[in-house]
Amino acid sequence: MPKEDATTKDRSTVRTLLRLWPYVRPVRARIGTAACVAVVASCLGLVIPIVLKWIVDGPVAGREPGGVWFGALVVLALGIAEAVLFGLRRWLVARPLAGVEAAMRADLYRHLQRLPIAFHDRWASGQLLSRATTDLSLIRMFLAFPMTFLFVNGVTVLVGCGVLLVQDWTLGLILLVPVVPLIVVCSLFETRYSLVARRAQDQVGDLTTVVEESVLGIRIIKGFGRHRSQAEAFGALAERLRGTELGKARLLAGIWAVITIVPELAIGAALVLGTVQVADGALSAGTLVAFLSTALALRWPVESIGFLLAMSQEAATSVERFFEVMDEAEEDPGGHRGTPAESSGGLRFEGVTFRYPDAPDDAPPVLDGVDLVVRPGETMALVGATGSGKTTLTALVPRLHEVTGGRILLDGVDVADMPRERLRELVSVAFEEPTLFSASVGENVLMGAGPAGAGEPELRRALEVAQAGFVRRLPQGDATQVGEQGLSLSGGQRQRLALARAVVGRPRFLVLDDPLSALDVHTEALVEAALRDVLRDTTALVVAHRPSTVMLADRVALLSAGRITAVGTHQELLRDSAEYAWLMSGAGTTGGAR
Ligand SMILES: Nc1ncnc2c1ncn2[C@@H]1O[C@H](COP(=O)(O)OP(=O)(O)OP(=O)(O)O)[C@@H](O)[C@H]1O
Ligand SMILES: [Mg+2]
């Protein structure tokens, strides 16, 4: 997994968090204003001790009740002003920060759509899901709270220390001495906490993956009675996450203890010394009251630093995880080299080699010099043993993967030179595993129509070609919603919708990966008859396992050991290729006349 090494890498929390700037920039004025408001509010709290000092040394010492009442009213007013200002701050930041989170999520989603298939092969979906949810909320929380309050509390503590030193510098120094060890402890804490925080967030991703897989695979789990083992796997991961979270809590508890106890001790010492000084007459009672209430007012800003740092650490980890995905290169849109079209049309593979990026180095390439010409308007069946690379070859045409060598030409133009949008308009695909989205049947089919869109007649025609008459008997016809992955439809029904999607846009090139495998032979024959009509002016490459599917094709190509070893009609190949005859013989009828 690509994430593991990041935990050991050195990183600067601040530098990581600074990467958020492009997203924060548009709302910087609001956030800046909110921070200033918070600083004012927080420092208002520090004025209260000064008023107290005035009350104690003035009206209280002189026994004037009127003055005491006035002082009390001032304190009340200050308290209210502080509360109102903090409320204002919250109001100022809430909306822009929700906007920042939404913008980041939209960016992540857009980026995920454009990342190459190779990326998605490599990354567990739970890791991506947890980034789009947990990590982004952690980042929003950081922007709303720790980011402002590390600044606000820092300023408050500095101002407060100034006030303390002005009032009585000896007592002030006693309070300030413990600051040095506190800083050391905090920085130690930060390093250790960042490691655990990262581990915890990765483990949340793993857990999300297991939950997602067991929900999607619920039929298998029930069918094989695997509840227990699945629950055990989940339990083990949850236990691991719990351990990590407990480790986090232990670290937090430690830092809290230090951050709380040390200032408490210092305040105690200052109290004793101050009382002695007041008794000696070296200090006014009012000054001591003011001094101690300032020190107490500073307790919260100091204590909060522990968890503010912890939250910032978590946010930095989230930022890192977010940008791990964002930094992956998108598919390039293609179409830089405008090579002139060559005269030869159709679909051509020239010396195409391919190996999966994550395949071991010593493994032979899946495709090793594939040469094949599908003439314009021709339908070519692609036959080969299971695992021979048929799916891989079909995925290369719409550039779901990039060839590692050789080239693929559509009507004489190298697909690598075509803008991807254009390429995917030209080529329609249907894969072995028919994927339907949570949308109506009609929307699922029309998805294949490209940017120009298609209307009701095209939809009717495509459904007819795919023999998807069952759609009319669905409760709301083609407006019926099909569930996640089309679970409410049968395998053959889903395949027929996927096929309808492939043909609805009347593509020039059609690439079908075993599109009829789940149909009974009679339905398959009907689909074939209709398809032959559609395929008349479409150049098609159709992966086939059954002789009945092969019958659809004008010619057949045999893929074996990474190359095309034979091309010809079904009859010719049956006669000339032992491997082809063998592949076809196990599958029921051995051919038949065409
Ligand atoms: N994403 C991937 N990463 C690495 N290797 C892969 C990947 N997908 C497939 N392979 C490997 O490539 C080889 C060819 O797989 P492919 O799916 O193209 O076979 P196929 O001919 O379509 O088989 P089938 O008839 O069973 O559908 C297999 O050995 C497979 O293990
Ligand atoms: Mg396959």
Automatic annotation (TrEMBL):
Species whose genome carries this gene: Streptomyces lavendulocolor
Annotated transmembrane regions: 31-56, 68-88, 141-165, 171-189, 251-276
Keywords attached to this entry: ATP-binding, Membrane, Nucleotide-binding, Transmembrane, Transmembrane helix
Topological type in the membrane: Multi-pass membrane protein
Keyword Transferase: no
Segments forming domain ABC transporter: 347-586
MF terms in GO: ATP binding
Protein name: ABC transporter ATP-binding protein
Principal location class: membrane
Domain of life: Bacteria
Gene3D superfamilies: ABC transporter type 1, transmembrane domain, P-loop containing nucleotide triphosphate hydrolases
Domain ABC transmembrane type-1: from-to ranges: 34-314
Pfam families: ABC_membrane, ABC_tran
Signal peptide: none
Cellular location(s): Cell membrane
Organism lineage: Bacteria, Bacillati, Actinomycetota, Actinomycetes, Kitasatosporales
